[in-house]
Design a protein that fits this description.
Elements lengths: L1 H17 L2 E10 L10 E4 L4 E4 L5 E8 L1 E8 L6 E7 L4 E8 L13 H6 L7 E4 L1 H4 L11 H5 L5 E3 L7 E3 L7 E5 L2 E2 L18 E7 L13 E7 L8 E7 L2 E9 L10 E9 L1 H8 L10 E13 L5 E15 L3 E16 L6 E18 L5 E17 L5 E18 L5 E20 L3 E12 L4 E13 L4 E12 L2 E2 L13 E2 L8 E2 L2 E2 L5 E13 L4 E18 L22 E18 L4 E15 L4 E2 L7 E11 L5 E10 L3 E2 L2 E7 L16 E6 L5 E2 L3 E15 L2 E10 L7 E5 L4 E4 L4 E9 L1
Parallel strand pairs: 1-7, 11-14
Antiparallel strand pairs: 1-4, 2-3, 2-5, 5-6, 8-13, 9-10, 11-12, 13-14, 15-16, 15-47, 16-17, 17-18, 18-19, 19-20, 20-21, 21-22, 22-23, 23-24, 24-25, 25-26, 26-27, 27-32, 28-29, 30-31, 32-33, 33-34, 34-35, 35-36, 35-37, 37-38, 38-43, 39-42, 40-41, 43-44, 44-47, 45-46
């Protein structure tokens, strides 16, 4: 009995001692602008415990033993801050720090926050981008653009200068989720593939998950691109004006003052205008008689309101437009607009972080071809979510949340067999997830689970996911991830076009075959499974290697039925589903290896070498084939060099090589005779349409693609708020003829851009 009491007393004392802990949390900002200092470091010296701030500049350290401590706040390019703190039992200490830019050139090499973060985050198949990293690319058409940077990432295949669609590790563009401040963006890239809808100068971070992403994200089966924008300058009115032979851009930002008191609120407004359809007649008249038939307009606005404890509300809106008009070939346009908000709440007396978002967007697209009837499509709806992050000891945490999506869509489409396909529907989806992150001295463990309910289909999907990382030593880290994924959204294209511009979406279709081969269909959803493994190795402070192998098995894919030649009615009851249903089901397999080799001396030289080898196959009811984006080999080499006495000159180079895409060759032509008069039809007098007789599906290969881009930039710095940049760039330096569009009926070919010089001036104020 005494022994039991002793044990009980010991446990009480033990847990009482463990309870003598407190927490430290807060925000780190840049003093000059009031912007969050994301990915900066905070270290408690005595116990050697630290953290890296998130995109909001927020940090949290829980379960700290009570006592007096010295802490250091640091970030490359800024003066470190040293502070004394006192941790009290069961209390949360809230702090704010403002970093000043360093006035001296540091002679010692500092380890970047990104490398420190890699040791405490799994980061399988994810690349984290900032505006600074994007700026290392050649400034083709003016400012560097995230669309150009995404094209150099491991596992990413793109269709080139024109068209600009991304295919990520075997997934089609429809299988990529693009988020802007939590809002779903249905088309993020302009038809001229050099540009996205996003202004680089408003981007805070862009996290690109090429596969194996955790349960926070859902509704897509291949990849996620999560873009977050800056809040705007909270101290001064500032901006940027850029003009080039391609177009112009204007950005303005500053504090929102509702009274004379010091403000924590801000705004940022950005606009981009392309006028290359006009200027190309003068500057690039060697390309064609009608110049370059592209134009677009992008508008984005955001207002940020911050509370005294760091809680924040953002309101934003956008309007994007795109148009392509090739005379006698194609007239294509789309419009996208939306608005919404997101927030961050720091509850008083709690180690929890609450985040949420609510947004609405609309996307409409139209296409006119001379050889087919008009194609039209629209989709509009909302998405909202609420997330809770609970911080445990050290860097351990639990995160969970809920999401609701609702959208309506419509489609009018004429397939290659001149059969009209129409669709109109409304869809609602609910989802919930939970994620646990355990950070040990060497081992990182991140299991997560997502439940996604597709109510319009009456289906649900349970999706377990797992991420692992093992830090073998200071320089070598092994990582792996796996998971199940699902989606409802379907893209509309035939897969026959050498290059497809028409990008339309539908959902909730049940017009599907009942089986694929010998396997019965048991779901209306698209589904996939990912397995990814690899390692990270730091040779030294400058050189690093990231190597990954992946396998994506697409259990079920849904596509527009390119084989449909019969109407789905009682007359054709005995016709197989694959010849009469609007859509077909397929399976797919993508496998490959990605290598990323980087050099960065943090002073003047930055080098990226990317090599990807992959193979993508699809199987429908009739055959196994290669989709049109099956590129076996892809190489990107990017280099950036700063020079001059004050590093005011820079040279940027990018070379890309891609092996040929598959396409369906033309076997012959035939006359499609109209027998509307029955047996009395006089075929000798009829004037009917000429149609293409295709060869075996995607058995041909287009020529290899390769292109060299170059830019040189000179910076004139008059003050911190008065900077002019002059940029001269050349795209396709050695004038390679890369195919863009080919009309197999008229035998008309359009190549991608020839040698294309641009001159731009940028004024920052």
């Amino acid at each position: 009995m005494v022994r039991k009491l002793f044990v009980l007393l010991f446990l009480i004392i033990h847990f009482k001692i463990l309870a003598q802990n407190g927490s430290l949390r807060g925000f780190i900002y840049e003093e000059s602008s009031g912007e969050p200092a994301m990915f900066s470091n905070i270290l408690i010296k005595k116990i050697d415990v630290g953290a890296v701030t998130d995109v909001n500049g927020f940090f949290n350290l829980s379960k700290i033993p009570v006592g007096q401590y010295k802490i250091i706040v640091s970030y490359i390019g800024f003066e470190p801050i040293e502070d004394s703190i006192k941790i009290e039992s069961d209390k949360i200490l809230d702090k704010k720090y403002f970093l000043k830019k360093s006035s001296i050139e540091l002679n010692t090499i500092q380890v970047s926050a990104a490398k420190q973060e890699s040791k405490s985050n799994i980061n399988t198949s994810v690349v984290k981008l900032t505006a600074r990293s994007i700026s290392k690319l050649p400034s083709i058409g003016g400012d560097p653009d995230i669309a150009q940077f995404l094209q150099i990432l491991p596992g990413v295949v793109f269709t080139g200068d024109q068209g600009g669609e991304l295919y990520i590790r075997g997934g089609a563009p429809i299988h990529n989720m693009v988020l802007l401040d939590g809002m779903i963006i249905y088309n993020a890239f302009h038809s001229i593939g050099l540009f996205s809808v996003f202004d680089t100068d408003i981007i805070k971070t862009a996290d690109v998950y090429t596969g194996g992403f955790n349960a926070e994200y859902g509704g897509r089966i291949s990849s996620v691109i999560d873009i977050k924008t800056r809040d705007g300058n909270k101290k001064n009115i500032s901006g940027k004006f850029s003009s080039s032979t391609f177009g112009s851009k204007f950005l303005i930002e500053g504090p929102l003052k509702f009274n004379k008191s010091k403000t924590r609120n801000s705004f940022i407004v950005s606009s981009k205008l392309s006028y290359i359809d006009k200027t190309s007649e003068y500057f690039y008249n060697y390309i064609g008689d009608n110049g370059l038939p592209y134009n677009f307009i992008d508008l984005y606005a955001k207002a940020s309101f911050m509370g005294s404890n760091g809680s924040k509300l953002n309101l934003f809106s956008f309007n994007f437009q795109d148009n392509v008009n090739y005379s006698q070939l194609i007239d294509y346009s789309w419009k996208s607009k939306g608005f919404g908000g997101n927030f961050v709440i720091i509850p008083v007396g709690s180690t929890m972080l609450i985040e949420g978002n609510l947004a609405y967007s609309n996307y409409v697209t139209n296409q006119l071809n001379n050889d087919v009837s008009p194609r039209t499509s629209s989709i509009s709806g909302f998405n909202t979510g609420l997330d809770f992050t609970y911080f445990l000891k050290g860097e351990n945490q639990i995160k969970y949340g809920v999401e609701v999506l609702g959208f309506g869509n419509s489609l009018s489409y004429l397939n290659p067999s001149n059969i009209k396909i129409s669709h109109q529907d409304n869809t609602t989806e609910f989802a919930g997830y939970i994620k646990y992150k355990k950070v040990g001295s060497r081992f990182l463990f991140e299991p997560s689970l997502r439940y996604h309910s597709y109510t319009s289909l009456g289906e649900s999907s349970f999706e377990p996911r797992l991420g692992l990382k093992f830090n073998l030593n200071e320089n070598l880290r092994i990582k792996s991830s796996a998971g199940l994924f699902s989606q409802n959204l379907i893209a509309i294209n035939t897969g026959r076009e050498v290059v497809n511009l028409f990008r339309a979406f539908i959902s909730s279709t049940t017009n599907l075959p009942s089986s694929l081969g010998n396997n019965d269909r048991n779901t209306f959803l698209q589904k996939s499974r990912h397995i990814i493994s690899g390692f990270e190795y730091d040779f030294n402070e400058f050189w690093s290697l990231n190597f990954e192998g992946y396998l994506k098995h697409f259990n079920q894919l849904i596509s527009l039925n390119r084989n449909k030649i019969y109407e789905d009615n009682s007359t054709n009851e005995n016709v197989i589903d694959e010849l009469k249903k609007d859509f077909i089901i397929e399976t797919g397999l993508a496998r490959g290896l990605d290598l990323l080799f980087t050099y960065n001396n943090q002073k003047d030289i930055n080098i990226w070498f990317v090599y990807s080898i992959g193979k993508v196959t699809r199987r429908d009811a009739f055959e196994e084939y290669y989709p049109h984006y099956d590129r076996r080999h892809n190489i990107n080499i990017v280099s950036s060099y700063l020079f001059g006495e004050k590093k005011t000159w820079s040279i940027d180079l990018r070379w890309n090589f891609g092996s040929g895409f598959p396409f369906t060759q033309t076997q012959g032509y035939y006359e499609n005779i109209d027998f509307s008069d029955g047996i009395s039809t006089d075929i000798t007098q009829s004037n009917d349409e000429i149609e293409v007789l295709y060869s075996n599906f995607n058995r041909g290969r287009m020529p290899s693609y390769h292109r060299l881009d170059f830019s040189i930039k000179k910076t004139f710095k008059f003050s911190n708020y008065n900077i002019i940049e002059s940029v001269f760039s050349i795209s396709n330096l050695y004038d390679r003829n890369n195919i863009f569009y080919y009309n197999q009926l008229t035998d008309s070919r359009i190549d991608q851009f020839p040698i294309l010089p641009t001159l731009s001036l940028n004024w920052q104020f």
